[in-house]
């Protein structure tokens, strides 16, 4: 065999350049299975009673500043986590309810309008009736933002023009309070 | 004669190699791994309109978007389709406290670091890498996820960036008459998107 014919091997050798070992290194990716623990999970469950480093003691009332930013954040989270059942308007006729899930009470009921923030906080954290706990999905700050938004939803059904600052009213201001 | 033959052979082998590395067999495009439960994004996202974040809860906070715990499935399925055989593995999983073994559809090589939160919080939509998930009866890989694919965007992110409220939307398009490139460049200023030089720095992804 002539010496140049060895060049034929070059493409064949190049085909071997892929290194699957580097693409799948001996480390554990999130949620991968690993043999280090008996249950085979790489992601370790958080032991009960764990306190996060920057965790504040549970607030009894909404610790967030009530402003447009908080409400926008609350609305976003409400639409993601609550609206499937409670509906975007809070009346409890979300798409999952339309598919047969037991309807939650409307958030506009007098009982829920009177309920304190803490009640909503506990329902989000621990669940209520057919509703599962959302503690693992909706972290502390998001819960309070959602509660602030629920309050604004409730208010939206019962708002009076006098509640709106004069310079934010949509109607031409006549200088007098409307009847 | 032998020389010509050898040359032809080299050409054929290079072509075959190129074909192989572009093929879906190698890239994984259209690959649909079998899952313990035939979960349909088409039903849950396309038809019911659930937000991505309802199940992939950590996508905005973490490098990993999060595969839903069986508890999340059972939030609805404790009441809906409670006797469906298809959902038996989910019920068993919650009862026995044993996670379902979902199979990864989008698996990047271990030598690249990808952070979901860095992307979705800066205007890169889910759809850019995952495709029209709302049309997938079974979850399928739709992009090559090659380095070329990443670089296409890192070299010129503008046309793919979206406003924050459209990141999780499927099939979003800019309003008609809006210059997509210009909109993207305004968004880049808003998100403080790093320079192309930084975005194409090796160490950005290969840490």
From TrEMBL, chain A:
One Pfam match: Cytochrome_CBB3
Protein origin, superkingdom: Bacteria
InterPro entries reported for this sequence: Cyt_c-like_dom, Cyt_c-like_dom_sf
The organism of origin for this protein: Alloalcanivorax venustensis ISO4
Residues of the Cytochrome c domain: 69-154
Keyword rRNA-binding part of the UniProt annotation: no
Signal in keyword set: yes
Alphabetized UniProt keyword annotations: Heme, Iron, Metal-binding, Signal
Matches recorded under SUPFAM superfamilies: Cytochrome c (SSF46626)
Protein name: Cytochrome c domain-containing protein
Secretion signal span: 1-23
UniProtKB/TrEMBL annotation, chain B:
InterPro entries membership: Cyt_c7-like, Multihaem_cyt_sf
Family matches, as SUPFAM superfamilies: Multiheme cytochromes
Every Cytochrome c7-like domain range: 38-79
Gene3D superfamilies per record: Cytochrome C3
CDD domains linked to this entry: Cytochrom_C3
A Pfam family: Cytochrome_C7
Cited PANTHER family: CYTOCHROME C7-LIKE DOMAIN-CONTAINING PROTEIN (PTHR39425:SF1), LIPOPROTEIN CYTOCHROME C (PTHR39425)
Protein name listed in UniProt: Nitrite reductase, formate-dependent, penta-heme cytochrome C
């Amino acid at each position: 065999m002539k010496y140049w014919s060895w060049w034929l091997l070059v493409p064949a050798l190049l085909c071997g350049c892929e290194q699957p070992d580097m693409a799948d290194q001996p480390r554990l990716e999130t949620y991968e299975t690993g043999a280090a623990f008996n249950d085979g999970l790489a992601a370790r469950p958080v032991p009960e009673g764990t306190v996060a480093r920057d965790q504040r003691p549970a607030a009894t009332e909404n610790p967030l500043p009530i402003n447009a930013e908080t409400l926008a954040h609350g609305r976003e989270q409400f639409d993601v986590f609550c609206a499937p059942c409670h509906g975007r308007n809070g009346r409890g006729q979300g798409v999952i309810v339309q598919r047969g899930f037991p309807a939650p009470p409307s958030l506009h009921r007098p009982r829920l309008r009177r309920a304190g923030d803490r009640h909503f906080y506990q329902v989000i954290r621990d669940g209520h009736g057919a509703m599962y706990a959302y503690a693992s999905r909706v972290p502390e700050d998001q819960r309070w933002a959602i509660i602030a938004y629920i309050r604004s939803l409730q208010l939206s059904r019962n708002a009076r023009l006098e509640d709106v600052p004069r310079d934010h009213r949509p109607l031409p201001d006549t200088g007098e309070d409307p009847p | 004669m032998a020389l010509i033959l050898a040359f032809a052979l080299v050409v054929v082998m290079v072509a075959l190699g190129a074909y192989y590395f572009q093929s879906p067999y190698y890239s994984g495009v259209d690959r649909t791994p079998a899952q313990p439960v035939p979960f349909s994004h088409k039903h849950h996202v396309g038809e019911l309109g659930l937000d991505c974040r309802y199940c992939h809860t950590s996508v905005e906070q973490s490098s990993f978007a999060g595969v839903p715990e069986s508890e999340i499935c059972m939030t609805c399925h404790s009441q809906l389709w409670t006797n469906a055989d298809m959902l038996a593995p989910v019920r068993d999983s919650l009862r026995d406290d044993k996670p379902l073994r979902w199979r990864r559809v989008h698996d990047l090589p271990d030598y690249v670091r990808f952070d979901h939160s860095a992307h979705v919080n800066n205007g890169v939509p889910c759809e850019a890498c995952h495709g029209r998930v709302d049309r997938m009866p079974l979850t399928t890989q739709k992009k090559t996820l090659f380095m070329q694919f990443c670089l296409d965007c890192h070299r010129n992110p503008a046309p793919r960036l979206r406003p924050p409220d459209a990141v999780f939307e499927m099939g979003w398009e800019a309003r008609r008459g809006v210059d997509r490139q210009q909109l993207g460049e305004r968004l880049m200023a808003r998100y403080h998107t790093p320079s192309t030089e930084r975005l194409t720095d090796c160490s950005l992804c290969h840490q």
